[in-house]
Amino acid sequence: MTTSAPEQSAWHLAWETELDRIELDVELAERMLKQADVRPLPVWSPPSMVVPLPEDLLPRARLLHERQLAVVHALTSRVASTVRHQALADRVRETTPPDVPVYVDVSA
């Protein structure tokens, strides 16, 4: 089955639009990582395209995929670091006697 030129053009535009959406999502995640922004990311949904990616868009799609993987790696590293810091804070808290005043106000 062959597709007509208008169908191919619409298919190409649909994929370009989808890649634009993915790129904006990646840029948002990258920006949030750089700024240590803790807002939750919007729910991401994978492309729901039923037609194959046009061959000329493959390099762009690969680059976006590499950027997504870099964001995943950075997020994973950030979570691991946070878990280590939380474990250290928990250990410090466990070794400190609870509810013991550190300073006494004698100015009164």
Task: Kindly report how far apart the N and C termini lie.
Answer: 91 Å
SS elements, strand count: 0
State which percent range the strand residues make up: under 5%
Rg calculated over all Cα atoms:
25 Å
Percent of residues in helical segments?
Answer: 55-70%
Low-confidence stretches: none
* Structural class estimated from helices and strands: mainly alpha
Order of helices and strands: HH
Large-scale geometry? rod-shaped
> How many helices does DSSP assign?
2
- Please state the average pLDDT score: 85
Structural domains: how many: 1
Report the biggest beta sheet as strand number plus sense, adding barrel if it closes. none
Explain what you see:
This protein is mostly helical. The protein has one domain (7-44, 53-94). The chain is built from two helices and no strands. It has helices spanning 5-34, 58-95. α1 runs parallel beside α2 (58-95). It is rod-shaped and about 85 Å long. It starts with a helix and ends in a 13-residue tail after the last helix. 2% of the residues are buried. The model has no long low-confidence stretch (mean pLDDT 85).
